[in-house]
Amino acid sequence: MRIACETLATTNRVIIAGEVRVPDSLLKRSKDGEVLRDAAGQPVVNPSKFKSAARKAIRSIGYEQAGFHWKTCRIDVLLHGQSADIAQGVDEAGNKDVGAGDQGIMFGYASRETPELLPAPIYYAHKILETLTIARKANNSAAGKLGPDAKSQVTVRYENGKPVGVTQIVLSTQHLDETLSSADVRAIVEPYIREALPEGWIDASTVWHINPTGKFVVGGPDGDAGLTGRKIIVDTYGGAAPHGGGAFSGKDPTKVDRSAAYAARYLAKNVVAAGLAERATIQLSYAIGVAQPLSIYVDLHGTGKVEEGVVETALGKVMDLTPRGIRTHLDLNKPIYAKTSAYGHFGRKAGRDGSFSWEKTDLVGALKAAVK
């Protein structure tokens, strides 16, 4: 299966567009059972299952408002077959060395700031939203008055390079009760924010910005259009590390924008977990149709216990960094990506279903051996 599609959402409208190569079960057929083809000879995608998946996702998030409702929003599926010119470089069949699906530079980062080796500001901003969502969906508390659209930001205070507290907290969250003021919303969310942050991080000097513009009743795509890749920094490290520029979502793992970024995070996390550094940035680069990475670059930010060049050599030894090697090592050819659509792609627990395999630290032993 190949997927390279974008999703646009606005008032009561969702558009899914791009190129795909899907199983026959997802193709449109004539009454005689023949696969329908467009003017270019490409098979026509059956939109029904894509529409169904979109409605289920909208419902799961919780959008049931006049301007955006899972039942009534219009969903247009504008998908077509994958370009044969791209396919020839990434197809498994007939290719000994399957090339990258695109050119680009991908970055991975890890730091000892948090238990999941993610920068503290983005880690706790995500944790605040996840804690609130769990409470809202439980619907057995005042959090049930909140809507599904929310975003957060925390300003972290550091001492000697270690996070020790938050100086400012920003949370904008949709609310279903139009009578609620910003103060009312703060009263609802403050216990959950305190629960999400480490004990002692909030003190009397912490500044709170809860729905700072006032009411936030109209939310989601009805209030602000959404598009795949619009917030790529939120998906990664919150600006604490470089980003190659490519979004992850809407892409199958032959696209190194996604898979190589996961591999770079996996390697960076294992470098830090192995005690080789307190912080690590890993950069990989690829060319379309070329299997081997063009470069492997390591920056240990002055915290390394071994030379960076030694780590660079070791990374190529402990993991096959070709696109096929990455997909095999991290077992990425599975439907495991839905969970990445909220709370970021990194700093998550690896799941039994294979999700977030790039968050494992199972290369620690191999890395320690490789740098001796």
Question: How many E strands?
Answer: 12
- From the N-terminal CA to the C-terminal CA, the straight-line distance is 41 Å
Shape: flat
Radius of gyration using CA atoms only: 22 Å
Low-confidence stretches: none
- Most strands sheet: 4 strands, mixed
Derived structural class = alpha+beta
Give helix % range: 25-40%
| Beta-strand fraction estimate | 15-25%
Please tally the helical runs, counting DSSP H or I stretches of 4 or more residues: 9
| Strand order across the largest sheet | 5-2-1-10
- The overall average pLDDT, rounded, is 92
User: What pattern of helices and strands is seen along the backbone?
Assistant: EEHEEEHEHEEHEEHHEEHHH
Detail the topology: elements first, then pairings:
Layout: E1 2-10, E2 13-21, H1 48-61, E3 64-65, E4 68-69, E5 74-81, H2 84-90, E6 104-111, H3 120-138, E7 146-159, E8 162-175, H4 182-196, E9 207-210, E10 226-227, H5 232-235, H6 256-273, E11 279-286, E12 295-299, H7 308-318, H8 323-330, H9 364-370
Parallel strand pairs: 2-5, 8-9
Antiparallel strand pairs: 1-2, 1-10, 3-4, 6-11, 7-8, 11-12
